[in-house]
Amino acid sequence: MKAFHFPLESIRVLRQQRERTAQQAYARALTKCDTLARKLHVAEEKLAEGRAAVIYELEHGAAASHIVGLRTWCVVLEVRSHECESALAEARRAAAQAFQALTLAVREREALDRFHEKSRRAWAHEAQLAEQKIFDELAVQRQSAPALESPCLN
Q1: What is the pLDDT of residues 139-149, one digit of tens each?
Q2: Can you say whether residue 61 is alpha, beta or left, with left for phi > 0 and alpha for psi between -120 and 50 degrees?
Q3: Number of structural domains, the chain?
């Protein structure tokens, strides 16, 4: 019997490649989320420091122009913080979409893998039946062939 050949092997390879691509895209999306989360953390720390500086200057009676300058700087830091939050939210949405794409790619590949295994088992079963048929035919031929008697050595 001829060797097993899966007719959808090229599609199977493409689905494996699509899954790897989806894994890489998801990994990049998670890395981007992590980077943006760190940026947001830094921006929030700087904003907290700026606010603390304004409070300190207010408590210690600094000049109004200095306090206005610090407050303006805090507004800039708030804008940066909000930008980081928006970017992080967008990156998380992109990561969620990448995860959905990965999940779909995995499901599609697994479905084709199950079909491949089912086809392989069916082929193996047919091969086993064909082999058994050959053995049965050999047994029938052997039984129907005239018995060759060996000469007695006396």
Answers
A1: 888 888 765 55
A2: left
A3: 1
